[in-house]
Amino acid sequence: MSAGPAVPVTHITSRDNPLVKELRRLSHESTAYRKNGRVWLEGDHLCRAALARGLTPVLAVFSASYWPLAHVECARAAIKNIVIDDALLPEISALESPAPMGFVIDLPVSPLINSSAASVILDRVQDAGNVGSILRSAAAFGFGQIIALKGTAALWSPKVLRAGMGAHFALQLVESVEPSALADLQIPIVVTSSHHGGLLHQQKIPMPCAWAMGHEGQGVSDDLMARASLKVRIDQPGGEESLNVAAAAAICLYASSLAHKPG
After folding, report:
1. How are beta strands 38-42 and 101-106 bridged, if at all?
2. Going by C-beta distance under 8 Å and a sequence separation of 6 or more, which residues neighbour residue 219?
3. In whole angstroms, what is the distance from residue 118 CA to residue 96 CA?
4. What would you measure as the largest C-alpha separation in the chain, in angstroms?
5. pLDDT digit string (tens) for 46-85?
6. Which of 16, 65, 180, 206 has its CA 20 to 30 A from that of 237?
7. Taking phi first (over 0 means left), then psi (-120 to 50 degrees means alpha), and beta for anything else, what does residue 51 get?
């Protein structure tokens, strides 16, 4: 670092340290963040994405070998810095190659549903990689709210965070929502299906709207299908029966944003 840190530094050498145990839980357990009220962000990319959105970490954690090389921006970002022995990294990380740094942030307060915001509804989407990928597409194409119905993968789990690549910090995330709460939406729900509705490229998609993406095997529930104002299907001239839900989401959200692009 070109300058010393402006925040307190604590060195940890024991795997029995309570913080090491807490970080391990946050890193390995998909819903530990709900009990702890804290989220573990591992790696430079996620940490920088959080800083870019104005978040202040509670803790910044660095390996002992990386600490002298840490960027001043990261070393001065948190309320407190923690430097741990390199040998403790495998104790904390769930990655095959642990990152040498990470942040702990307070779990953002789950907001109320914004009834008029362009949204993506996740209906029991269970694969963490799919959920994270959909969050990335939502952020990229201007859909600022994610409404995760009960049964959907935990939005702040480590695997979803890694797949989201920083998209979390650009979105309003509402978790564990009952389907009945969707009745409060003031925007139309649009459902994509392999078997129902007109072809996506032939439809006029309303905007703002709420795109509903369903369970990997079962698709969108009958209840949510009944709430939909519009049903569309994606043309697949190659003849495949269906698309991966994250791929379908990217196509739908892109088409939706393109249709309403100025000019």
Report:
1. antiparallel
2. 193, 194
3. 37
4. 62
5. 999 999 999 999 999 999 999 999 999 999 999 999 999 9
6. 206
7. alpha
For residue 41, CA distances in Å to 51, 168, 185, 230, 247 come to 11, 11, 32, 38, 25
The 3-state DSSP class for residue 84 equals strand
What lies within 8 Å, CB to CB, of 162 at 6+ separation is 42, 43, 46, 132
Q: What is the tens place of the pLDDT at every residue in 118-162? A: 999 999 999 999 999 999 999 999 999 999 999 999 999 999 999
Is residue 90 within 8 A of residue 43, CB to CB? The reply is no
Euclidean distance between CA atoms 75 and 2, whole angstroms: 11
Answer yes or no: are the C-beta atoms of 115 and 186 closer than 8 Å: yes
Look up residue 31 and give its two tokens: 């819903």
If phi > 0 it is left, if psi is from -120 to 50 it is alpha, else beta; for residue 79 that is alpha
| Whole-angstrom distance, CA of residue 63 vs CA of residue 230 | 51
Least Cα distance to 186 among 114, 123, 121 occurs for 114
Does this model's pTM top 0.90? yes
Local structure of 28: helix, strand or coil: helix
Please report where in the chains the tokens 């040998």 appear, as a residue.
Answer: 87
Question: Omega of the bond prior to 208 within 30 degrees of 0, cis?
Answer: yes
Looking up tokens 């939005």, which residue turns up?
155
Residue 3: is its pLDDT beyond 50?
Answer: no
| CB 79, CB 1: distance < 8 Å | no
Residues in the chain: 263
